[in-house]
Amino acid sequence: MKPAPAPRVPRPRPAPEAPTAPGRRPTVGRRADQRADRRADRAVWRCLRHRSMRWWSAANLVSNAGTWMQLTVQNLLVLQLTGSAAATGLSLTVQAAPGLLLGLAGGAAVDAWPRKLTAAVSQAVLGAVAFVTAALVAFDLLTMPLLMVLAAVTGLVATVDGPACALLGNDLVRAEDVPSSIALGSVVHSTGRLVGVALAGVAVATLGDAAAYAANGLSFLFVTAVIPFLRLQPRAEAADPEPVAVDAGRARDGLSFFMSRPRLVALTAITAVSAVFGRNYSLTLAVLVTGPLAGGAEEFGTVSTMLAAGGIAGAVLAGRMRQPSVRLVAALAAAGAVLQIAAGFSPDLLLLVLLVAPMAVVESMSDTAGTTVLQTDPPPHMRGRVLGVWRSVSTAWGLAGPPLLGLLMEWAGARGALVIGGLVIAGSIGAGALHQGRRASRVVATGPLPAAGQAPVEEPTPAA
Questions:
Q1: What pTM was estimated for this model as a whole?
Q2: By Cβ atoms counted within 10 A, which residue in 108, 148, 226, 462 is the most buried?
Q3: Distance (Å, whole) CA 150 – CA 182
Q4: Measuring CA to CA, which residue among 75, 94, 95 is closest to residue 83?
């Protein structure tokens, strides 16, 4: 006889889900959305979510291409007028001199005048200079003295145009998207350079030298036409100044503020040493490839291509940063110095090619991080003057660096210049970090804690 079957017990049904409150998403969906938001906030080109930034980037690409067209043709014109390479260098020096001498005044003007108006007027003036030069070239009236005067005027206007356009680009995006904006600007600059140099050859061959200047004038007018339609972020619109007079006192205030900010001083020291001893790869690597490595123009072209590709890759990686620090700039510069030392010891061209790409990557990332600190560390009402100070000092090391590096190469050779330069950069950064560590220890040991309600003592500057 079979046993009686066990009674069937019904399976418990799952409890119905609690209704979601109006306006609230389920937990799983919320988490997915939060992850998506975080990915979007770390996206390389997140600054392009802003419509005004898309227009500004397109305008900058056109302007950069026009500028490099004009600069390429200008060098050829000087050679045609004088037959002297030294005169070509002199014209570039004349154009850079206002940045060295009047950078402070230009930055003070940017802080004193509304940002969009300042950028639009400076772009229009640069366009007028380009059209005047085009007319002089077309009617065969351009002489060397006139060319020098026009170069000086261009450099003078650029002391205002440079910081105004840089800060205007940052004012179009959220504060956390500024690194993405600067990285995009770096890619736009590199792309515009390649396009401009290529178009210069086509323009000269088909339409003549005047066409390059006219095209540059049109590119400035395009930027001028775009600027009125750009929308500033609310924080930038609230900080946009009413027009005031520019005097020497405002420029001195900018210099005093710059020198009182240890972060900015440390950034200046790191960048100056790196620029003089580590960034002139077009000179050091050219001598290394064609000398000790027994290469030629084709081999140096390969190295230059790797440098360009690494620079673009570095800008893309830098676009993911949100709040870079001087400490990060120093770490990247030190990494570049180590790679530079290794490049100096390269026994063959293959190893050098493998090294130059990461060298360019860390250089590009360091530049983007440093520019972000420079443009976001000061309060909004001082940023123009800070960029003015930076323009003056960076012009100084830009003019002094190549001759100093040339003397070092004469004494130590291309390999020695790369190795010694890398050691100087790494040693300077290490010494600065050691000094800051000791200073921080003294502050911890001797500095009293702030009382309740009292502002804390500012943390010592990292990374120099």
A1: 0.81
A2: 108
A3: 29
A4: 75
